[in-house]
Design a protein that fits this description.
alpha+beta; 27% strand; 4 helices; 177 residues; 2 domains
């Protein structure tokens, strides 16, 4: 099975847990991390875009300003000793490769045919936690079964970026790829 999946090297850290015992709790967190449950500035931006108020704005500059505002909000929360609380997940693992709908753990730590809930801190801009559900199809290979649309786009974009890195390294003759 893993031979038919195209993987690219992508070192990521994942927190995960079997979904069956706490599915409702995990689904609630998954829903709260969706693009529709964003912070107030994100809601304002979506509303402004829907009204056409951002048509003449420089989208890159606008995105950077929004992210700066979010950083200030995060610093304010830190100073006030407030923190976004996530559900505590029992396992932390290392992903060594990803595919469009799959990822591979460094070690064989999964139970085959078991559904899991997970969070991954993605190295994309803007940096954020993505939540997803996956099913173990092997002891170290997972198939993504549920991921938000925006997260899926960022996942695919990250995979393409990692693929480009691999191609450049292969062209250089790097033996570690």
């Amino acid at each position: 099975m893993s031979n038919s999946i195209r993987f690219v090297v992508a070192p990521l850290v994942i927190e995960f847990e079997e979904a069956k015992n706490n599915y409702d709790v995990f689904k609630r967190e998954y829903d709260s991390l969706s693009e529709y449950e964003e912070d107030p500035i994100g809601q304002w931006l979506k509303l402004s875009k829907a009204k056409g108020e951002t048509k003449e704005s420089d989208q890159v500059l606008l995105t950077l300003m929004i992210e700066l505002h979010r950083k200030i909000d995060a610093l304010t929360m830190l100073i006030k000793n407030e923190e976004k609380e996530y559900v505590k997940l029992t396992h932390i693992g290392k992903i060594d490769a990803i595919g469009y709908d799959h990822f591979r753990f460094e070690n064989k730590i999964l139970k085959i045919d078991t559904e899991y809930y997970a969070r991954i801190s993605m190295p994309v801009f803007p940096k954020r936690e993505i939540s997803l559900f996956f099913k173990a199809i092997d002891e170290n290979i997972a198939e993504i079964t549920l991921m938000h649309q925006k997260d899926n786009k960022d996942w695919s974009a990250y995979m393409v970026a990692r693929e480009r890195v691999m191609i450049r390294e292969l062209k250089r003759g790097d033996k570690n790829v």
